[in-house]
Amino acid sequence: MSGVIAMELGAHEVKLVESDANRLTKHAAVLLKDAGFIDGMPTSALTAGMRSAMELAGCTAEGAFVAIPDIDVAIRDFPLPAIPGKDLSRAVMYEARRLVPIRPSDVYYAWHATPTSFGHAVYLVAARRNMIDAIALAVSAVGLRLERMDLKPLALARGAGAHDGLVLEWGLAEATLVLMVQGRPRFFRTLLLDAPPEDSEAQLDELALSFDALLKFIRSAEPDVTIGPTTPLFIGGRFALVDQGTERARQRFDFAVQQPVAPAGCPPGFPWQAHVASLGLLRTRAWRSRLTPLEGGDLRAAA
């Protein structure tokens, strides 16, 4: 067997693509019958949804890259002065313990540091160990080998190729909004949609109202960021699948609405717009510590 499955896990849906030799070959999206996560922990409905999506797509790959929802995670974006490389990890972990109010023994950390004029800009994710371990077990239960794990909003921004601006993905039962500033996620939120998937107009109305409410919050929480009609808004998900989805987005959102660029290795007719986060999973990013537990305890796979 060859190839890899890139899978997005949500509270009410599971989506995946299979890639072989950098070519997208299969895809599926399923709506979960019950909540996929309760109090941050994966449920049997999530495992059933993963299995159904794999069967629907006819997947044969055994390796899995997985995007998880932003539940029970803490994000910190902080500067560090110029530090010798051999001391950088210790300095990051010191700040992580100080800034994240969770016992270090209860979390997995993942971080990367970008060189700057003042030293380093550090982006750190802390996720509860019991949640990550339970997700790893669920992935293993459907016969997959977990190779990489990331937060869905971060994978979504990477898949959209958004350096600055907003990213909005409209799914079957939820939507995710990400604000990117100079290549760094400054805000993200996933919303559950109450309207049924078959009523796309009602879902779009609900999404537009929620978007406006979140935008007001972002403008108050991030006063140094200018957001206006010229701000790029990258759209994904159902916008590409419903009738005149892009034009309807331009009517609802007063921004520079655009679709992400189609990925290389995408066959004609492949609905890649519905799987932007999965595409982001397939694009690697160098992290200095890892979220994903492997056999052997604290060893990590790529995050």
Structure characterization notes:
By secondary structure, the protein is of the alpha/beta class. Among the domains are: 59 residues; 98 residues, 2-Layer Sandwich (Nucleotidyltransferase, domain 5), CATH 3.30.420. Helix content is 29%, strand content 36%. Strands 3-2-1-6-10 form a five-stranded mixed β-sheet. Strands 13-12-11-14-15 form a five-stranded mixed β-sheet, sandwiched between helices. A hairpin with a 3-residue loop joins strand 8 and strand 9.
- Which residues sit in consecutive blocks of at least 5 with pLDDT less than 50? 292-303
> What best-fitting shape do the alpha-carbon axes yield?
globular
Number of H/I helices: 7
The CATH class of the domain at 162-259:
Alpha Beta
CATH architecture of the domain at 162-259: 2-Layer Sandwich
Backbone structural class: alpha/beta
* Distance linking N and C termini: 23 Å
The CATH topology of the domain at 162-259 is: Nucleotidyltransferase, domain 5
Rg calculated over all Cα atoms = 19 Å
Order of helices and strands: EEEEEHEEHEEHEHEEEHEHEHEE
The residue fraction in helices comes out at 25-40%
Notable traits:
five-stranded mixed beta sheet, 7 helices, alpha/beta, Nucleotidyltransferase, domain 5, globular, about 300 residues, disordered C terminus
